[in-house]
Amino acid sequence: MADVLTLGRAPAPTAGARRSAVRWLSYAFFAIALLFAAVAAALGDVFFFRLATESLIFGGLALSVDLLLGRTGLLPLGQALFFGFGAYVSALTLKHLAPSLPLALAVVLVSGTLVGLVGGLIAIRAKGVYFALISFGLAQVVSKIVFNTRELGASDGLIGVPAPVINLGVASLDTAHAPSFFLLVLVGTAALLALLMRLMDTPFGRQLDAIRTNEHRLAFLGFDPWRYKLAAFVLAADIAALSGALYPMLRGFVSPELMFFQVSGNAVINVIVGGTGTFVGALYGSALLTALKSVVGSFTAHHAIVIGALFVVSVIFFPKGLVGYLAPALERLWSRR
């Protein structure tokens, strides 16, 4: 009887098909990025390379938000704290220690882990909206401290950050060269995305999904949700800090605005517009909003109105985000085949 009822109906998409769809959308994103780079190189326009690199850097911040929001069920409204922290530590390292990218990333990773651990011990004691407010409050406190610290440039920030040259043995890569730096950030973003997607297929990733679904049930099974949430918080802080570490190499300066709520809010919008819980959706959302801000900004300074309207429309009519709708469409297509 069941065979009769299902006759002529496409089989239900499997979990493997769903992962395959997201994976192909990831391939498509980086293929489009390389195509964009080829066009920009043909036009000889540095602006497009800088814009695309900025999109990838803020896409890294959005990935850290998606790890907490989409996979752990925690809404971070202060993730810009770690992004700005990484930017300042990187700038100080490049200016006062050595113009070395590996050194800057190593210092940011160690210090970002410590700051993330402290912030996590404070924030994850709360749940729901209280966690969001605590993360928001931590970012506000630190941003105001930086804003009023003259040694860090106060409201003007730090300027004159040198662009390091990376020695690759047979050749060198100058981060001041826009196409080279774009390709470097693109490779780093691809590696980060692959790492996160692989991590979600491990027992640790499945525990995070279980926390998002039902934290109390996970505790009944003998696991400690608190430890997994703390690990996710620290990992998200590291991702945001490492993404922020690249910002001073792109712009040559850092400012307290990198820690402001607008940066955290934009990262959350990137995730929701692109597709919560998909990771690659965060990159699509960042690319879309960065391009939109650039286009609308060329006509009016009130681009935030357009971005806010897009966010409202996305939440109401497309709550699953761009990838959240494209992936099932690919699943159904493959299921019919």
Task: Explain what you see.
This protein is mainly α and 337 residues long. It is 73% helix and 3% strand. It has helices spanning 2-5, 15-43, 46-69, 80-96, 101-123, 129-147, 178-199, 203-220, 225-245, 247-251, 261-274, 280-297, 303-317, 321-336, and strands at 158-159, 165-167, 172-174, 253-254. α3 crosses α11 and α11 (261-274) packs parallel to α14. The longest helix has 29 residues, at 15-43. The model is unreliable at 1-12 (pLDDT under 50).
Break the fold down into its secondary structure elements and pairings:
Layout: H1 2-5, H2 15-43, H3 46-69, H4 80-96, H5 101-123, H6 129-147, E1 158-159, E2 165-167, E3 172-174, H7 178-199, H8 203-220, H9 225-245, H10 247-251, E4 253-254, H11 261-274, H12 280-297, H13 303-317, H14 321-336
Antiparallel strand pairs: 1-4, 2-3
For this entry, give a set of tags.
two-stranded antiparallel ribbon, globular, 337 residues, disordered N terminus, mainly alpha, ABC transporter involved in vitamin B12 uptake, BtuC, two-stranded antiparallel sheet, 73% helix, single chain, 4 strands
What can be said about this structure in brief?
The chain is mainly α and 337 residues long.
Mean pLDDT: 88
Task: Give the proportion of residues in helices.
Answer: over 70%
Which structural class do you get from the secondary structure elements?
Answer: mainly alpha
- Identify low-pLDDT runs: 1-12
**Quaternary organization:** single chain
Order of helices and strands: HHHHHHEEEHHHHEHHHH
Read across the widest sheet, the strand sequence of neighbours is 1-4
Gross morphology:
globular
Evaluate the radius of gyration: 21 Å
